[in-house]
Amino acid sequence: MHLTPWKHPVPQPDDGIELFEALRPRLVRLAYRMLSSKAEAEDIVQNAWLRWHGSDRSRVNNPEAFLSRIVTRLCLDEMKSARARRETYVGSWLPEPIIDIAQNGVDEDDLTLTLMMALERLSPLERAAFLLHDVFGLPLDEVAATLDREPASARQLAVRARRHVQSARPRYPVEREEGDRIARAFFAASTSGDVAALQAMLSETVVLRADGGGKVSAFLKPIVGPARILRLFKGLRRKLGSEWATMIEPAWIDGLPGYISRERGEILQTTALAIENGQITSIYITRNPDKLRHIAQRLVPFQNGQTRPH
Fold it and tell me: In 215-238, which positions are buried (b, 16+ CB within 10 angstroms) versus exposed (e)?
């Protein structure tokens, strides 16, 4: 009996791999801004790749718009279940932190963690319209097609979203050097018990939010006002000792100055600081290990003695 030799598929010049990979960082960024989760964003983009690979690309005139549409619609579907999970989430919820987005501390789309928190207050369609039009620069007719809405409706969605987000945008973004200085000073004061130094850094309206997700200990409700935050850090030092936290490295977290640290050498966390007029207005602490896996993996080589990248 004659056997036909096994043939491995040979990639064709128009298989779209190179094009998709060139667009992948932008698509992941879009999905992350929609879902506030790096892991979920990467899963969404991988799903988009499967759909792109199986599509008739000869009929696609604008691959970037086509893929943005796929990713956005997949994200809108995912947001339905994500919002249901949020209803049973333990304590404060924060976006999954992304470290060192850009050399100057601000991502190219200029959305800080504070602004991402503002996005959470939007409806899924408002969030999509704002991101696609205002952040990623898609024309309104393409936004409307993506959301299956009339252009006038898509415009109104973007306008409403812009109004909400604009109120959360800092009037005077902090410079990199100043942000680094305040983050280091905050860590030193909050862990050493220097109440006077810590108080001088906090605004009268400062709010602390900590996300442990029920996996590790964290403050379940926001801590509002400098007096309560000062008592909080004094209590931590009294309970855990003078070396209760160790800074692993300074970092910019979703466009905000901060640092990565460990509590008692065990619990990994990120701390991001929103700063206005030289004072801290918001403190965002992420401790949920599910949201820090990519950061823990990033730190492994450095903890084994390799050189830290610059």
Answer: ebebbeeebeebeebbeebeebbe
